[in-house]
Amino acid sequence: MTRILSLSCLALLVLTRLQAQDAPKWKGKFEQLDQLLPTPNEYRSGSGAPGPKYWQQKADYVINVELNDDNQSVTGNETITYTNNSPDALKYLWLQLDQNKLADGNMTQKTKGGTIKDSVDTRTAAANLDLYEFDGGFKIKSVKDAAGKTLPHMINYTMMRIDLPQALAPGQKFTFSIDWGYNINDGIRFRERTQFEYFPEDGNYSYVIAQWYPRMCVYDDYEGWQNKQFLGQGEFALTFGDYKVKITVPADHIVGATGQLKNADAVLSKAQLERWQKAKTTFDKPVIIATQDEAVQREKTKVKEKKTWEFHAENVRDFAFATSRKFIWDAQAVKIGNYTPLAMSFYPKEGNPLWEKESTNAVKNALEVYSRMTIDYPYPVAISVHAAAQGMEYPMICFNYGRPAKDGTYSAAVRKGMVGVVVHEVGHNFFPMIINNDERQTTWMDEGVNTFVQLVTEIERYPDIDFDRGKPAALVPYMKGDPGNMRPLMVNSEQVIQFGAEQYAKAGTGLFMLRETIMGRELFDRAFKEYAQRWAFKHPKPADFFRTLEDASAVDLDWFWRGWFYSTDVVDQSIEQVKWFKMRKDEVDPEKKNVKTRPGDLAQNEEKYQSFSSGAEPFSLTNTDPRMYGEFRSQIDDKAVMAKLQDKNIYEVSLRNKGGMVMPVVIEWTYKDGSKEIERLPAEIWRTNETKVTKVFVKDKEVTGIVLDPQKELTDINTQDNVFPKTQTPSKFEEFKKKTK
């Protein structure tokens, strides 16, 4: 009996044969991640949401700090009230001493590699060879309990352990104080997240101050104390709390900081105070609170008197500030749901006219788009501070680069960089300042996620600028690089070699592809917002992110997490061959004299399947043998089925996954009449064969060309084998390459 039921059956037979041939290459790319993710429990549920007994610690700070503008140092004292919300009794507490990264004999210095090269500039050589003399690191003067009794403590590089008089029981609080000081590093010598910049033209300094006080480590349900050493690349894991901070600086300084300014009438002039109040109700453009003329005058006078600025911040994970007599200050109100935060910028005259034009507007744009994508921005201010060669974030305040030439002119590239870094760093208010992941262990959860929302903001608000980081095509050069220099996203940040390309760009690109190609915007945006709402002001882990996006969308993404986050596989799809068929006009052949067998046997010469030049292969269908119906009493209308295929163009397309990373298949069909069609197939098309798939398509019109990933949505590293016919003339092939470049 000739067993030809339909073209789909024929394709199934071919696919089954290919599966058998490629079975040894199966890598389990569609296996669930259950064995890799932590077991759900009462703290973190299987849905990705916080569990019914989720808990986190709290650390409240009262800090007094003074900045010495004569010798570039800070001294301070802090009182910390630590609340143990865990179910564990704690015998000791761990604090971070990040300034110790610059202490003599620090671990970063000891573990840093290097080479000697001829004709290296002296600044680079001095930094690489540690030739600068600098007395860095915290000087801890005392650690005492609330009664003033000295507490035993031990310093291990960038971590300090304080032993408690007795174990801190669940639900209890412990209050203690630390006196400390340190010297501020010169940013031109030590490129750190905190620094000063000296301006020789007027003899003044600008300070951006961060990691400036001993900070509580996170203690959580996932790993206990997060006390991994700070080596410089991996950033921070921090505990939420309330802050009351008094900052003493020269009286002619302007200070920007985390939190609300509580004593504006004591530190601002009458005119500045009036402008500040006006800014709170001005939504259309920034109000200049401290003008450039005022800043220039302050640069000249350099008073020796002091003032103390007081700021309060609630439910934040950190505190940073910036101060200088050079600062210009502007602010604008932004409407975000039921909140009206002030978008503000602080910058020296060296930042103008670029900063006055762009900075606060970029803050506003970021707050509006990020709030739509996540949660309404809840804090009272969002500040952008201009600092040379900086791009760093803290709650409500960030430090950003982008400086015009001395004559005030700036290129499109300088504007692009400045706008991009402001949007990115302001965006960090959401990731990780609110949705508070552990940056030191999983950098992509803040840098990569933030890079993605940054790109969404840039595309929406800056259509005149060609931003590309986070777009699939921009990642291809990295994906084509040396696999030995690649690391999976799911590694500790200190092990990453290509930090920006992976933890920022690759992670951001992955989310961009999820939104634009794999899930679609509606499904993705709903799931992404659910994640943000679930984990706002909490400590999410990767499993919480993975599980929430699937839980809120009904899309199984384990194949994507496995490939994109846990491996270094790349995307490289190709069209192996295309077979074109048309059904014979006399489709019914009762005598079965002209029936062919499987489509794969219709021609022995495989070269003919590299183009359409040989025309369509004819094939026939036969009436269904009644025995094929088995127990069914009814039968299909064979002629009606055959009629549906009459005059159709049928294409059997063989695809190959050569890069290892399974991805959806995006096909562009070009028809003889010049029209085009985009067809999208889910990644699950590879589920039974991870390396090769053969699929049949029925088309009304004759096809003249086929292209995979025509809009470069999938980071395919080799687009030359994405096109069919294979025998295109050079001019057509060059046209295709130019179109997809």
From TrEMBL:
Domain Peptidase M1 membrane alanine aminopeptidase, residue spans: 361-564
Composition skew (Polar residues), residue ranges: 722-731
The organism's place on the tree of life at top rank: Bacteria
Basic and acidic residues compositional bias, start-end: 732-741
Gene Ontology MF terms in the entry: metallopeptidase activity; zinc ion binding
Record's keyword terms, sorted: Signal
InterPro entries named in the record: Peptidase_M1_dom, Peptidase_M4/M1_CTD_sf
SUPFAM superfamilies to which the protein is assigned, alphabetical: Metalloproteases ('zincins'), catalytic domain
Region: Disordered, residue numbers: 722-741
Signal peptide region: 1-20
Protein name: M1 family metallopeptidase
Organism: Dawidia cretensis
Classification of source organism: Bacteria, Pseudomonadati, Bacteroidota, Cytophagia, Cytophagales
